[in-house]
């Protein structure tokens, strides 16, 4: 059984993440989506809400593609969390050269810690390549329309949270 592990902040999940998750679900038997809760900045959404949204959006995608999708949180090293959850492949997305520089360095340091977890990269799709959670967060905080960038369930949840 091929188990993938896709870690991230997912604050919030965007159409860019969904693109990577959908493509990875075609390859893996099980895909673990791991929400990192070790975060310096104040998150837009709590870890519980991030997990809930990811389950709502991604579990049906996995079911359609014959991939079991599980959403977890982790607060330790991603490579350790991957191993502890039985994954042998870490999934990451690449948008541009700054992602490349950062992600390759991280993959190499992860490999230095654990040779049994291999990182594979998905090149971002053209239609979602420009999307970054950090910018979505800024737009949402300033009352802008994030509907082009995030799944509809996420947009509704964020809009509701902003009105409070
Ligand atoms: P992190 O805080 O670890 O960067 P993110 O949730 O922002 O967490 O991203 C997790 C992973 O998803 C990273 O590998 C990132 O490069 C990738 N990613 C983020 N946005 C996109 C996108 N629009 N297209 C493809 N990959 C993306």
List the helices and strands and how they pair.
Layout: E1 3-8, H1 15-25, E2 30-36, H2 47-64, E3 68-74, H3 78-84, E4 89-94, H4 97-113, E5 118-123, H5 133-141, H6 152-163
Helix pairs in contact: 1-2
Bound molecules: adenosine-5'-diphosphate (ADP).
Structural class category: alpha/beta
Rg, nearest Å = 15 Å
Ligand catalogue: adenosine-5'-diphosphate
Shape: globular
Number of strands: 5
User: Looking across the biggest beta sheet, what order are the strands in?
Assistant: 3-2-1-4-5
Distance between the termini: 44 Å
Low-confidence stretches: none
The secondary-structure element order is EHEHEHEHEHH
- Residue share in helix: 40-55%
Mean of residue pLDDT values: 96
Q: Tell me the fraction of residues in β-strands, as a range.
A: 15-25%
Number of helices: 6
Characterize the biggest β-sheet.
Answer: 5 strands, parallel
General description of the model:
It is built from six helices and five strands, in the order βαβαβαβαβαα. It is an alpha/beta fold and 164 residues long. Strands 3-2-1-4-5 form a five-stranded parallel beta sheet, with helices on both faces. The longest helix is centred in the middle third of the chain and has 18 residues, at 47-64. Bound molecules: adenosine-5'-diphosphate. Adenosine-5'-diphosphate is lined by residues 8-10, 14, 16-17, 19-20, 92-93, 95, 99, 103, 124, 128-129, 131-133. Adenosine-5'-diphosphate binds at residues 8-10, 14, 16-17, 19-20, 92-93, 95, 99, 103, 124, 128-129, 131-133.
């Amino acid at each position: 059984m091929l188990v993938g592990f896709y870690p991230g902040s997912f604050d919030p999940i965007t159409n860019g993440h969904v693109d990577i998750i959908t493509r990875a679900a075609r390859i893996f038997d099980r895909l673990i989506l791991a929400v990192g809760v070790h975060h310096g900045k104040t998150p837009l959404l709590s870890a519980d809400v991030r997990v809930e949204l990811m389950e709502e959006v991604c579990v049906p995608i996995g079911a359609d593609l014959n991939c079991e999708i599980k959403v977890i949180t982790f607060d330790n090293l991603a490579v350790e969390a991957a191993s502890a959850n039985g994954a042998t492949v870490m999934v990451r997305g690449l948008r541009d050269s700054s992602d490349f520089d950062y992600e390759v360095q991280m993959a190499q340091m992860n490999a230095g810690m654990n040779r049994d977890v291999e990182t594979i990269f998905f090149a971002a799709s053209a239609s979602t390549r420009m999307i970054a959670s950090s910018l979505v967060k800024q737009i949402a905080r300033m009352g802008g329309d994030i509907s082009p960038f995030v799944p509809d369930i996420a947009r509704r949840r964020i809009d509701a949270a902003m009105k409070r």
